[in-house]
Amino acid sequence: MKWKRKVFSWGGVVLAALFITVWSVWSSAERVPKRYLESAEQKWRTDDYLGAVREYEKIAEEYPRSKFVPEAIFWGGVLYYLYLDDPQKAVDSFQKTIRLTSTTPKNTHALSARRYLAEVYEKKYGKLREAISEYEKIMELSADPDQALESQYKIGELYLAQGNTEQARTEWDLLVKRDPKSHWAPAALYRQGSSYFIEGKCKEAVGFYRRLTADYPESDMGPFATFRTANCLEEGNQAEEALKLYRQLEGHYPNKELLESKIKQLEKGAPKNAEVKAEEPVSATPDPATSPAPDH
Length: 296
Prior knowledge:
This protein is mostly helical. The protein has a domain at 220-279. It is built from 13 helices and no strands. It has helices spanning 2-45, 49-62, 69-82, 87-100, 108-125, 128-141, 145-162, 165-178, 184-197, 202-215, 222-235, 239-248, 256-267. The radius of gyration is 27 Å and the shape is elongated.
């Protein structure tokens, strides 16, 4: 029996040595791709975008089996989209990132690739249906509730841009019901109200605006909702009530000049056709263009 123990003992040693050897070879093989990544980041931070792209592409060309390939291709796509004005190469890169991570579709780079892909489809090609499909896929795959809510918010905006107002409202309504405590909820309520406002349906619009200010008194969207409510009161020849709301916004509404114009207009009893139009608030949607260079 002693010889058996010796066999098993030596077998364990051999396996351990083999594992160490394999790990050492693999680790050594990944050192160069890792250096390429670091070099690309350095070039990116010095605004050498073409140089950064070249470093990322060298990883896929020279080390196609490296674990860093999907990441490198993804960041290359970001550079093509945001800095090199080559949307087609960006699309190719993001699609390839998704294919390479098909066995792990919830991979961070895969989901981010879909987010950017949707942006390119929308802003560069006007392919709104394709953009919607990418956001729907993010909603299906993402484990991040905020990411899913952002995607649904954007889907509503895209349906509105297509002229499908009812579906846009449905998306925003579902968002609010899904997570009424989310910071996306007041933005969705505002967009629902605004979809009626631009149709001249002030009664319906005010219902959403008042709901927003009542349920989310601290929301940044509140002043815009109140301003629009005052607009609607003007339309309904309720000048005194409108003026009261405008005055309540003093010190709170971001466009001070616009607010002052409205107040002076009503104080002087100016005719309704002299009104100053309301402005849309800055979108609550994060802009991918603000994404920093990768930091490992």
